[in-house]
Amino acid sequence: xIIIKSDRExxxxxxxxxxxxxxxxxxxxxxxxxxxxxxxxAFVEDKIAHYKMIPTFKGYGxxxxxxxxxxxxxxxxxxxxxxxxxxxxxxxxxxxGATYRGYVSDAARxxxxxxxxxxxxxxxxxxxxxxxxxxxxxxxxxxxxxxxxAVQKYAESNGMGVIREYLxxxxxxxxxxxxxxxxxxxxxxKAGPHLKRNMVIAIEPMLSLGSYGTRTLDNEWTVITDxxxxxxxxxxxxxxxxxxxxxxxx
Length: 250
Description:
single chain, alpha+beta, Creatine Amidinohydrolase, globular
């Protein structure tokens, strides 16, 4: 069931989103070669605590950290570790959220680690822009799969694979609510529900330089591309309006 949020609920999510967006902006300067994924998570959790909020991801389904930190071919759910050291030329995706008075936010970015190659830069740029192509349709008058179709069209026109197994989602009091938000549209798929004012969704393209196939590592969390091609992730919490959508985490 899709839960339409009240203006009061969106105001609470807006506060959570501001903190998440600020953290992701500041990570651009923090991320560099020779730090660990543990260091990134500590930065995220310390910032959330500074604002007296709760790290949305920590403990969710048993996940042990406040941020998913995924390197190179890791798509999502990378577990922070003191043993995972970032190297020059890597790319790293950070997916996180803050919870304020029971309401959540969720967003992700992919960052270069030092100097990266042209193919890595293109992957990050196309992933980010595919979000903005999709969010053009995140308003009343469109249907859910208009978003995914726009993401897929832009990504594939730029030679990228669109991950299909992992989707965006609704959110509010819970991190994952209805509706699921695909980043693609197959010809046989229904168009999905009509978008309504005060729906809140996370739109999160995950793209790869190769196949869209995935597999999960033995830790039962971290998902990688099955051909080990590089992957990037870009996400914001989005409020549907009659006109321009509001991006709570940007």
